[in-house]
Amino acid sequence: MYTQTVLDHFMNPRNVGEMPDADGVGEVGNAKCGDIMKMHIKVTDNVITHATFLTFGCCAAIAASSISTTLIIGKTTEEALAVTNKNVVDELGGLPPAKVHCSVLAQESIALAVSDYYTRHGIDKAVPKMDSHCDSCTGSCGGGH
To answer: Which entry of 58, 59, 102, 137 is annotated as an active-site residue?
Structure first.
């Protein structure tokens, strides 16, 4: 059901934890599935130098959170905003259709963390509004995506 990459990121998640001195924090949840993701970012000269997450959820939610931190560390905030749920799914080697919504939550948490960073630091940049479904919505995820 899950790829080896998903299982690895679930069993050995990267960058887990709170970041009290975060420059930006994004938290999202899905009431239908119960998953909650919180992404923290540290930014220096517009580059994300560190990212951590706290996730309450299933295997796919934890794996999507973990891989997302690895995708954005070292990227500019604009590059991080360009990370899509499809990128998350591809990096994980795929997700079952019913779990694709976890990748959407990961994308949303990144966008909200960057938006929070912009707000906290008085940066006047618009963050694109998140679509309410994933790139390849089938409706089968049960999460409304």
So the answer is: 102
